[in-house]
Amino acid sequence: MSSVVELQPSTTVTAVQGPEIRNTMAKQDHDFRELLSVLTLEEKVRLLSGESFTAAAGVKRLNISPIKVADSTSGVRPSQHDSDMTTACFPNTTCLASTWDVEALEDLGEKLATQAKMKSAQVVLGPNINMHRDPRGGRNFEAFSEDPLLAGHLAGAVVRGVQRHGVGSCPKHFVCNDSEYMRHYYNVDQTVDGRPLREIYLAAWSHLLRVCDPVAIMMAYVFSLFYRGHYDLIERVLRKSWGFKGLVMSDWFGTRSTVEAIKAGLDLEMPFPVHRGPKVIEAIKSGQVSEADIDERVIKHLDLRNRTRESHADADAEEYSEIEEATNQTARKLAEGGIILLKNENGTLPLDPNASAGLAVIGEFGRDAVVTGGGSASCNPQYRIPPVDALKDVLADASRMTFSQGVKTRRIIPLAPVPLLQTPDGHAGVEIKYINDSSPDSPILVERREKPSVWMMGEFPAGLQVPGSCIELNTNFKCPSNGKHTLAVRRSGAFRLYVNGEEVLTGPQPDVTTEQFIFNHILLESRVEMAMEEGAVYAIKLVVQSRDRETVGEPTPYAASLCFEEFHDEDQTIIEAMEVARAADTSIVFAGRDGQYESEGYDLEEIALPRNQVALIKAVASASKKTILVLHCGNPIDVSAVVDDVDAIICAHFPGQEGSRALADILTGNVNPSGRTATTWWKTLQDAPSFGDFPAQKDNGGDLTLKYQEGLQIGYRHPKKERVQWPFGYGLSYTTFEYSDLMVAVSGAGSTITLECSVTLTNSGSMAGHEVVQVYVTPAKGSRVWRPEQELKMFTKVFLTPGESKTVSLKEVLRVACSYWDETEKQWRMEEGVYGVLVGQLHSAFTVSDGEHWDGL
């Protein structure tokens, strides 16, 4: 093999991508594997399942402790499933991906490990490396990108950081967990040896395992062992071809079989035995499973204990203070690095913090900080800093700023506020009665709660009959204002709502799955509008029946919540916002989404801004001299209705507890924006390549099937460039960077031949800042199959002061840079020919003179 140009040996910044890395973890003082021979069969089987929502089982007799696990990358949640404990809240994963910063994400991993130890967790359940296939994907905000190489390398950095000090990392979800709608039940129309699966969806995992060695991997629901190719996925691909030696676990309630799951290579069923436990013992006795099969699975559990240590919160006050400071610095740095400047015209940004010009901040997110998305990737932050306060801290004259709330953004009605509630006997909050149908006049339990909500999952007060009971909630509600307000009920069963003894709202048992009950609360909600008077006290009684049958294979839900929202005249608030904007020189409008919209458990229905937000933005832009739009989101947003109305647009993501400070520094130029899109922003939902094939739909046989008709043409790989609002890898800066002297070479021999690129990068502007160097490879002409016009193969992030230049050198294994999956041979193929390299506006070429096939990473 030979190159068209030779690489010069000068390197100032070097980023290595490709060579296999196996990080060393803290070792236990003894080898847990030695206990295999003394475990009884029942104890072995016990290890193959969880014992709770937050722990895999142990064996007390042999001092094999349970393995405590915790979600996730944006913030390590406490081991107690329903705890209100706070935690350090980092930016969402798409914001992390938008940093394109491997070093920063490795630092994040170390901070996550510290947080895990403080919560006594031994394994962090993350990161999530599913692909951003469709901009409606509910969990896209907690995944990295549409590009497998970017996702794999950044996730690998997090894993390395987490595992450096004895905490384990469990990336998820293997594979194709790209849609949340009915994710337990749909199938995928792709095969293990199809190009889309190999080059996109499995490729992210391949890249991950080339740069790190996670202790465990979590399966996706869609491939949770009822899919015909599950054996191929775990045993043939993950273990034999890729050499993964860690533990493979199910997602929660994701196991669908007993014998098949064990033989397919699933080591751990979570969160507790459904298809295992006694069923495994029976399968062994009947000869369907051998004890050797069980031993093979148990070894993975013992190995995981060898590679991790039990975690305990043992820091003293001084150490804890130092940990907090370092953690907050990391959270802020990540938010700064991930926030993206998408548009900046008419010299709008940066704002001058020392100017006397008026500044209007408009939108409820300007006062109520958005920090995270919803579901298992959400967390309760240690603090929330309102963006208006963060801006005041960086402005020389805070009095120049005014605020207007604007319109409401919400899917569900909030819980009735505790200060407005009083129990019938005069205490704050609500009275809860648990009543069996067989004894309606004799509650088995009466309790008081502050919040007007009961939320149970399979664990009920002793003696409560389920089915066959009800929850009765009583409170006296003091109305805060005159108006036609909204009362709402969220519940698991049929209900009746009474106000002053009069029935005002009833509803049937919601037809929802357990997962929809947990996450998609809008499906549980019924509302009624009522004219109410300020200061008046209303006696409210809510009665919710238990569900009419127990849920099979999952905990039975039981819930009752009383909700309230004051009347809000949005036409008037828009008028008020216009008046505030008209009096200012620049207006900042906060809009987009929060965790009610982007969450585990359901997908978005559309990606356009809500109509009331569009009306607000247009009204403010018509009145303001200059308008800045700040968008909170995990998924791209269709901004076509307002993009021409505003002067500047910033994507702030869900930026974590330090996000407001990071955003204030970027708005005022204290920090140069350096975030780059990790996913293509299409102009409209209809322009997305997956539109029409997302989410899953019933096929001719009546089964839910998720089709991947776009194949390889996901995101920037799609040729439809004219329908893109902002492309993959895009982001503006307050300074300028120039590329020069691109050099490309191929060197080495055998399977370790590398493609090396060198380019000189110069900060030709007036502000210090970071630039993301992106290297794309174009396919050889005359390829026997269709290939994308270009594919990302290397990247790094570089900091330069004004006028500074650096030579940046990157390298990648040639096989990775040039190959595609041959569906006929079921192997990777690298063809001979001349390939192109694109870096910035520069291009070069290199020649591959020997084609080859291979399997594996």
TrEMBL record:
Q: Quick check: keyword Hydrolase in the entry?
A: yes
Query: According to its UniProt record, which reaction does this protein catalyse?
Result: Hydrolysis of terminal, non-reducing beta-D-glucosyl residues with release of beta-D-glucose
Glycoprotein found in the keyword field: yes
Pfam families in UniProt = Fn3-like (PF14310), Glyco_hydro_3 (PF00933), Glyco_hydro_3_C (PF01915), PA14 (PF07691)
For this UniProt entry, the molecular function terms from Gene Ontology, in alphabetical order, are: hydrolase activity
List keywords of the entry alphabetically.
Answer: Carbohydrate metabolism, Cellulose degradation, Glycoprotein, Glycosidase, Hydrolase, Polysaccharide degradation
Ranges for the PA14 domain? 425-578
What protein is this chain from?
beta-glucosidase
